[in-house]
Automatic annotation (TrEMBL):
<feature type="domain" description="Thioredoxin">
    <location>
        <begin position="1"/>
        <end position="181"/>
    </location>
</feature>
<dbReference type="InterPro" id="IPR029759">
    <property type="entry name" value="GPX_AS"/>
</dbReference>
<dbReference type="InterPro" id="IPR036249">
    <property type="entry name" value="Thioredoxin-like_sf"/>
</dbReference>
<dbReference type="InterPro" id="IPR013766">
    <property type="entry name" value="Thioredoxin_domain"/>
</dbReference>
<dbReference type="Pfam" id="PF00255">
    <property type="entry name" value="GSHPx"/>
</dbReference>
<dbReference type="GO" id="GO:0004601">
    <property type="term" value="F:peroxidase activity"/>
</dbReference>
<keyword id="KW-0575">Peroxidase</keyword>
<protein>
    <recommendedName>
        <fullName>Glutathione peroxidase</fullName>
    </recommendedName>
</protein>
<keyword id="KW-0560">Oxidoreductase</keyword>
<comment type="similarity">
    <text>Belongs to the glutathione peroxidase family.</text>
</comment>
<dbReference type="InterPro" id="IPR029760">
    <property type="entry name" value="GPX_CS"/>
</dbReference>
<dbReference type="InterPro" id="IPR000889">
    <property type="entry name" value="Glutathione_peroxidase"/>
</dbReference>
Length: 181
């Protein structure tokens, strides 16, 4: 099994097989428009522009599961991303990414790349860990996606290589991406 076993709806409602991305290095990320991590769209777009011609695709999956930080419609999300961040990488329909209602793709991703904690030596990691510990301690249990902008790096064969948490900046993925390209 690989990520190519899954299908998802694009933000425009078209059903696609992830097999369409076979042979590409992928970053699959759950996103939100009203999150403290939303500015990561900017660096995700920079990484995409720098490496798309070498075979990188970034697949964004908006989710409203974390503090209702993606309240708009799919068209609202698409407009927001284009106007505010110039996002040109593929976006998918709003998707549940954790717990029982999670899209099968995200269940697979989190099984393949378990949660190893936040880097609490960094301020954002310390802050998110403290917030979840206090407000949503059950979120820290298991391997589910913990918050918006969790990123999964996939090799050209569809294997999950690495998980980057919300607090990991997109530019910190570049070295790992380059190794796969």
């Amino acid at each position: 099994m690989s990520v190519y076993s899954f299908e998802a709806d694009t933000i425009r409602g078209q059903r696609v097989s992830l097999e369409d991305y076979k042979g590409k290095v992928l970053v699959i990320v759950n996103t939100a428009s009203k999150c403290g991590f939303t500015p990561q769209y900017s660096d995700l777009q920079k990484v995409y522009e720098q490496y798309k011609d070498q075979g990188l695709e970034i697949l964004g999956f908006p989710s409203n599961q974390f503090g209702e930080q993606e309240p708009g419609s799919n068209s609202d999300v698409q407009e927001f991303c284009q106007i505010n961040y110039g996002v040109s990488f593929p976006l998918f329909a709003k998707t549940d990414v954790r717990e029982e209602s999670a899209h099968p793709l995200f269940k697979y991703l989190t099984e393949q790349a378990p949660f190893h904690g936040f880097d609490t030596s960094e301020p954002s990691g310390k802050m998110l860990h403290a917030f979840l510990s206090e407000k949503l301690p059950h979120y820290l249990e298991g391997n589910d996606v913990k918050w918006n902008f969790t990123k999964f790096l996939i090799d050209r064969q569809g294997n999950v290589i690495k998980r980057f948490e919300s607090t990991d900046e997109p530019l910190n993925m570049v070295e790992d991406i380059q190794k796969l390209l």
